[in-house]
């Protein structure tokens, strides 16, 4: 959003006033810096585009920093980031609902999601009051889901399709994908350097669904672009982000990514589908030309591929794969907890007990590697029904828009990639805590917001296409 001259002057005067006030009152620039940071937070919270970009910035920061263990308490930075996100959500909810008396839900999916969050807050308060849940963990888990609620509201109301603000948000998302990719490669490199045995090498597992999302954007772009040099740029971007999928060493992503690429291709017309398939074959050939010499020349790469291939194939033997057996034990403990409280659940911040097969002892866990069971365990079957019904409605909305023939190519590229990303999330939710991961929920919230913004644009274009004479006839009918 471009500021007017008057707004720029007022903003500059505000910064100067904050600096002078802090120095005069405490004779220290540290106080000025603290007040300036507070002033910046207020400006960010009150600006919808800055608020959206703040969620993206927080997502990238949380992705690339070293992840704490599940039992480690959050530090000062976590508290500051949490306060920022709470402030953004509270400010806009109060502004829309209490001050301006406007509805927060323009669609059934948003209404169901709001009902889910309200239900989740109520059962969490009840659980905390009964000493069955930790309040700090409960707030963190609710904050992890907050992007699904607030980002669609902000995006739909303040981001016009094909506007400068939208281009800025798209650029921030693409830059985020590249930053997280570099961080994943560095993490994998550090794992290899620090490993004493080959099986200890680990993987680059920062924000795993983001790299497939970037690949889907590139694949969708290849279906439409007719200029060779832009298609070549998209192929390079696709190959670069493919490294992120490889580095993730995620069996889910290895299976889901090619399947969802095929789904994105099927959403296009026969001509678009054929163009996309040809260019993806070209991308695959180029990738092989680059990968084969590296594979032949590097013994370390061959050993790593052999090790990861063995790990991937072992998943076919569910009775002997320790990772899968541990997941099954975890799911069993969680399902027993669901049976104890199937209606109201146990609230966000609660934990369930299961026997850890790998470490040979019972373990209490606040999160689950099955996001489907996680939602039901925390909020009961009513909460699960509300959440997944909202998810299904957004998928239907995305599919309808992706099949539209009246939208501009740029819009269809993003919609089809967003629809594919929702399928990626469903894959990740089967064996990962994706609904307890703020970073993934930020990207999903932006996708939902984009769907709503495109729907709003369609409604406005249809209403503006009706002539005044037709409007009078419709009104008097």
In short:
By secondary structure, the protein is mainly α.
Question: Can you describe this structure?
Answer:
There is one protein chain. With 477 residues, the protein is mostly helical. It has one domain. The chain has 17 helices and 2 strands. The protein has helices at 5-26, 29-46, 48-64, 76-99, 108-129, 135-158, 164-194, 210-222, 228-248, 251-266, 270-297, 299-314, 322-340, 371-402, 409-431, 438-465, 468-476; strands spanning 352-356, 361-365. Strands 1-2 form a two-stranded antiparallel sheet. Helix 5 (108-129) runs antiparallel to helix 14 (371-402) and helix 14 (371-402) packs parallel to helix 16 (438-465). The longest helix is centred in the C-terminal third of the chain and has 32 residues, at 371-402. The chain starts with a helix and ends with a helix. The model is unreliable at 68-73 and 467-477 (pLDDT under 50).
Percent strand equals under 5%
Total number of domains: 1
How do the helices and strands follow one another from N- to C-terminus? HHHHHHHHHHHHHEEHHHH
Side by side, the strands of the main sheet go 1-2
Q: How many β-strand stretches?
A: 2
- The SS-based structural class is mainly alpha
What overall form do the CA principal axes indicate? globular
Continuous helix count: 17
Sheet of most strands: 2 strands, antiparallel
Q: How much is the radius of gyration in Å?
A: 24 Å
Give the proportion of residues in helices: over 70%
**For the residues shown, what is the average pLDDT?**
81
């Amino acid at each position: 959003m471009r500021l007017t001259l008057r707004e720029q002057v007022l903003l500059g005067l505000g910064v100067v006033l904050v600096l002078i006030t802090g120095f005069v009152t405490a004779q220290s620039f540290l106080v000025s810096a603290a007040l300036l940071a507070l002033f910046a937070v207020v400006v960010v919270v009150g600006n919808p585009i800055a608020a959206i970009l703040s969620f993206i910035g927080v997502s990238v920061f949380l992705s690339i920093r070293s992840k704490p263990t599940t039992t480690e308490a959050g530090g000062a930075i976590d508290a500051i980031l949490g306060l920022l996100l709470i402030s953004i959500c509270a400010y806009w909810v109060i502004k829309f609902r209490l001050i301006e008396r406007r509805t927060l839900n323009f669609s059934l999916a948003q209404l169901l999601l709001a009902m889910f969050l309200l239900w989740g807050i109520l059962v969490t308060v009840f659980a905390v009051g009964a000493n069955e849940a930790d309040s700090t963990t409960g707030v963190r888990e609710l904050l992890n889901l907050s992007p699904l609620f607030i980002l669609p509201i902000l995006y739909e109301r303040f981001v016009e399709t094909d506007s400068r603000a939208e281009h800025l948000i798209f650029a921030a998302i693409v830059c985020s994908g590249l930053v997280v990719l570099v961080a994943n490669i560095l993490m994998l490199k550090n794992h290899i350097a620090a490993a004493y045995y080959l099986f200890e090498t680990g993987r680059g597992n920062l924000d795993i669904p983001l790299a497939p999302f970037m690949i889907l954007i590139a694949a969708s772009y290849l279906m439409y672009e007719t200029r060779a040099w832009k298609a070549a740029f998209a192929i390079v971007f696709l190959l670069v982000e493919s490294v992120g999928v490889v580095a993730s060493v995620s069996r889910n992503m290895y299976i889901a990514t090619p399947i969802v690429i095929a789904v994105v291709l099927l959403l296009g017309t026969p001509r678009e589908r054929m163009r996309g398939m040809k260019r993806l074959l070209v991308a695959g050939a180029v990738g092989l030309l680059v990968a084969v010499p590296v594979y032949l020349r590097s013994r370390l790469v061959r050993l790593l591929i052999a090790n990861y291939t063995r790990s991937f194939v072992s998943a076919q033997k569910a009775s002997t794969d320790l990772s899968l057996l541990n997941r099954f034990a975890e799911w069993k403990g969680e399902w027993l907890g669901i049976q104890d409280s199937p209606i109201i659940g146990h609230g966000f911040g609660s934990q369930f007990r299961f026997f850890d097969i790998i470490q040979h002892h019972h373990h209490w866990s606040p999160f689950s590697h099955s996001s489907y069971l996680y939602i039901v365990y925390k909020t009961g079957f009513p909460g699960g029904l509300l959440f997944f019904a909202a998810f299904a409605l957004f998928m239907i909305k995305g599919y309808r828009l992706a099949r539209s023939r009246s939208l501009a190519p740029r819009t269809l590229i993003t919609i089809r990639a967003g629809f594919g990303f929702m399928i990626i999330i469903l894959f990740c939710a089967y064996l990962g805590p994706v609904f307890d991961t703020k970073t993934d929920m930020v990207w999903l919230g932006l996708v939902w917001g984009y769907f709503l913004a495109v729907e709003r644009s369609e409604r406005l274009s249809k209403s503006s296409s009706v002539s005044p004479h037709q409007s009078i006839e419709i009104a008097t009918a």
